[in-house]
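Protein in question filed below.

…
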Amino acid sequence: MDSTLSAHMMKRDGYEIVGVHFNYDQRTQTKELECFHKICNDLNVTKKYVLDLDFFKQLGASALTDKSIEVPTGGVEEGVPVTYVPFRNGIFLSMAAAIAEKEGAEVISIGVVEEDSSGYPDCRENYIKSMQESINLGTKDETKIEIKMPLVHLQKSQIVEKSLELDVPLHHTWSCYKNEEFACGVCDSCRLRLNGFKLAGVKDPIPYE
């Protein structure tokens, strides 16, 4: 939902969008890929990349990629949760930077949310800013890439409200960590999403168990 709103905001601001999606052996990989293609169609995206990063499964260490680790359903955990995928956003941004340099893009947009996230260290604003600096140090001198994070200080309810304002097709988004047909409604990501819709005073359009 966050990445989708970010993309719609970039489109509204006049940017031509290159869609980038990562298959990293996450539990809901098939559903997320399906949503990506629908969202690209909604935005009339003509150029898109789907990258397979199969090493995440080999790395493990996260409930999203290692099925021997249960996805927590009891509410917010203390510290960094087991659904954190080690350095995922850093790897995603590195791949996006390579694409941006190839395409001559000015901006990478990422839907990180710092204040209302699950406590992931790679969603922090100062971290993303440091990645921007590193990307520009490690690319050609003429490459100047800005990383925009338009949602970083929003809460989930504000993200829902902004999505409705921009007529974002929220029924094409998926947040559940566990399931692909019906969202579980109890994992941390579902809880954050449902609470955001509740505070915004609207019903979530996706199906739940």
